[in-house]
Amino acid sequence: MLVIFLRRGPPVARERAPCRRHAPRLGRSLALPRSLAPYVRRRASTQRKPPELTARPHRRSKCLMSWISWLETRVGFLGVPRLMQMIAVLNGLVYLLHLFRPSYVLALLLIPERILHGEVWRLVSYIFVPEILLRGGNPALQALFLFIYLWFLVWMGDALEHAWGAFRVTLYYFLGMVGVTIASFFFGGGGLFAFLLNLSLFFAFATLYPDVQIYVLFLLPLKVKWLALVSLAPLILELLWGSLSTKAAILVSFLNYFVFFGPSAYSKLRAETETGTRRRKFERKAVPGEETLHRCTVCRRTEKDSPELEFRVSRNGEEYCLDHLPK
User: Fold this and answer.
1) CA Rg, the chain, in Å?
2) Which is more confident, 230 or 11?
3) What's the rounded Cα separation, in Å, for the pair 225 and 246?
């Protein structure tokens, strides 16, 4: 924006334009058109104020995802827009490949032994294999459930990207892949625990949008939070009565969910605990119901005896009602 300044004295030929630091001291600016006035006011309001000398000491930010924000400012370009749409399309292509070449799909599964023999593409390719193919069943029903599954995956991806942005969705999915890979290498069952990756994605969606209502099988209306609890029930049973390796595999597979939502849950629990502690202290220090605030020294009446009574404190420090107030 071009701002012209007028010098208060007589004009000097070929005078150099003052720098920004000293420009306000040399003169005043010309009146700008009305169309530029809002812009000037907006620019003036966004200027940073100089720090005060009595400012509070710097405190660490309490932002729950501050480290993710820090990472996003530096490597945010690594975020993949519409990641879930791409994964859904590749899942559909793998399903078509399974119809013509079923043996090729086996080369995409997460099998640690084959990865150690050099088939490193399995570290990524397993996310493109639909879980429905691993269960088998009627091909017609497979196609129907695959369509519903991919449609729901795209819908969740759009919602999460709208709430977080492309980078955080990419980071969340990548951390999920890391957790599933670690669980597969140390606890086995790569094909068994691969479905936990998309399940953690669904739990993130249910955490951000718990009251969204969907129709299960296009018939039964159900909120996402209840569907998430139903999906969580088998995992809780495995955590309670499963083997030690199964428990560890489930916990490690949900690494992304714990990283993203663990700090917020801990902060919320801590805030509720502190609020409850302060409430209990306040209730202990509060005035009991049988005590009163005012009592006349002469007649011993209180505000509970008559709400219309008025009390005054005399010079001797005693409290009296208006009927017995010393003259």
Assistant:
1) 34
2) 230
3) 25
Q: Which helix (H) or strand (E) holds 5?
A: strand 5-7
- As a whole number of angstroms, the distance between CA 220 and CA 227 comes to 11
Name the DSSP letter for residue 306.
Answer: -
Q: Could you read off the pLDDT of 46-76 as tens digits, one per residue?
A: 444 444 433 333 344 444 457 888 888 888 8
At 96, give phi and psi (nearest 5°). Answer: -65, -35
Q: Tokens for 254, please give them.
A: 């949900």
* Contact (CB, 8 A) for 54 and 124: no
Q: How many CA atoms lie within 13 A of 242 on its CB side?
A: 15
The answer to whether residues 321 and 300 touch, using CB atoms and an 8 Å cutoff, is no
pLDDT per position as a tens digit, 22-38:
444 444 444 444 544 44
Cβ neighbours of residue 116 closer than 8 Å, sequence gap 6 or more: none
Q: Give the 3-state secondary structure percentages of the chain, helix then strand then coil, rounded to 5.
A: 60, 5, 35
**Distance of alpha carbon 131 from alpha carbon 188, whole angstroms:** 17
Query: DSSP letter string over 163-186?
Result: HH-HHHHHHHHHHHHHHHHHHHHH
Q: What is the DSSP letter of 129?
A: S
Please tell me whether the overall predicted TM-score, pTM, comes out greater than 0.70 for this model. no
